[in-house]
Amino acid sequence: MPYYAIYQTTSGALVAIASQVTEPLPAGLAAKFIGAEAPDTDAYQWDPSTLGLVSRAPPRLLAKHLFIARFTDQEQRELFGFSLDTTKTELQRKRVAAFIWLLTFLDVINLDAGNVMAGVNYLETAGILAAGRAAQILS
Question: H helices of 1-139, where?
Fold first, then answer.
């Protein structure tokens, strides 16, 4: 069965993947044949610049102890003792505590996960990490 990508002609953004296309398509949409079988969306993603499927980058996964090892000794002391720091606001302490709480439930850290990226970047905003360290930790 043929499969088609339905995309916006102005941006190339994917609208749908379909096995049937009814012509004419609504204005602003186009269809492109992408294969005889349904694409594996775990392995491939739509690229609006090439109007085609491209391989997804493999997730960047680390065991929790290797993730923690990316922080310096000083950063680890500040991170895990942060709730005791009275110079920080209550909101800052709660946000850092929420990130630490998240880490306790993870055995493997996905460096590309939105909640991990947001948490590490917040550590820089809160002053636990020096400027530029979040990017280093997440790279």
Answer: 64-68, 73-80, 90-105, 114-125, 133-138
For residue 26, cis peptide bond before it (omega within 30 degrees of 0): no
Q: What is the pLDDT of residue 86?
A: 72
Rounded to two decimals, the pTM is 0.65
| Residue 6 CA, distance from chain mean position | 24
Per-residue HEC secondary structure of 70-109 comes to CCCHHHHHHHHCHHHCCCCCHHHHHHHHHHHHHHHHCCEE
- Residue among 10, 50, 47 at smallest CA distance from 27: 10
Which of the two residues, 42 and 21, has the higher pLDDT score? Answer: 21
Spatial CA neighbour of 39 closest among 1, 68, 66, 77: 1
CB contact set of 29 (below 8 Å; sequence gap of 6+):
6, 7, 8, 9, 15
